[in-house]
Amino acid sequence: NCMKMLAEEFLIRTGLSSRHKGFRYLADAIRMVREDASLLHNVTKRLYPRIACRYDAKWQTIERDMRILVEKAWENNAPMLLKSIGYTHSYRPYTREFIYLASIYPGEEE
Asked: Rounded distance, CA 56 to CA 63, Å?
């Protein structure tokens, strides 16, 4: 589906690949937030458990794997990409912020 492709495109543009542990978790989180931004209001009680249930994992594992990927993305290409969509800080965004920014990423067609 289109939202899944946009999420994966964003992650790939930050230098990540589907081989990275947590790539699918993060792509799912981005897709879910595109559909319902209110999931960002309490990620540990709403977003992470939904993803954990889908992958039969603990929400803490989901959080850790996504946080590590956000750190890796920041070391790669993310600062320039995030700046292009309005992130002006010089420090790495929290996972929740990264998911939000990825969810508003317009992709190639816009």
From this structure: 14
The 10s digit of each residue's pLDDT in 75-101 is: 887 778 788 778 888 888 999 999 999
Q: Is the dihedral of CA 75, 78, 83, 86 positive or negative?
A: negative
Cα–Cα distance, 57 to 88 (Å, whole number):
34
Q: Does 110 score more than 50 pLDDT?
A: no
Tokens of 8: 């994966």
Nearest to 85 by CA among 48, 61, 110: 110
CA distances (Å), origin 24, targets 11, 51, 61, 86: 10, 9, 13, 25
Question: CA dihedral in degrees (34, 38, 39, 44; nearest 10)?
Answer: 150
